[in-house]
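Email to the structure team, subject: Fido domain-containing protein model.

Hi all, the expression group asked for a predicted structure before they design truncation constructs. Nothing fancy, just the tokens so they can compare against earlier work. One-line instruction: predict Fido domain-containing protein, return tokens.
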Amino acid sequence: MTEQLTVPQLLAIHMMHQDRFDVSPGFRNPGFLLQLVDRPLLEGFSGGGDRSSLIRQAALYWHGLARARAFRDGNAALAIHTMMTFLLLNGQELRLDEDELVEAALLCSEWQMELEDCEAWISSRLVRPALGEPEAPIPSMDKVFPPSYDR
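Reply from the structure team: attached below.
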């Protein structure tokens, strides 16, 4: 069964960004956040965990959060972090470098990536580690978004 994210989990990610990256607290529109958390369910995903379904759901979180700008600050970082968290919760990981991560986060938040582009981006970087294979490190977010970055 697919693990979905909750509003408290998204708030925890945003609070971590506030503490670590000096992101300003507060909402622009909390209603967007409530809608986005349920978006994968509203789009007909009822718990199937096949690879294409997980990719689509991860893209829905990323794309929706980046564009909705539910928070006053840090939406691009929240969106990419949420997508990666969703994938990790469901036993998937991305292999990428920090520059790719930053570029994709910014492109999506600047409306230069459509949902299908997000899916293709995830799909091309998604790997499932073999048993015993060391896991790739998750890129550090220290250099990803400067303080008070909001696009």
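Residues 7-127 form a domain with the Four Helix Bundle (Hemerythrin (Met), subunit A) fold (CATH 1.20.120.1870). The radius of gyration is 14 Å. Ping us if the truncation boundaries need rechecking.
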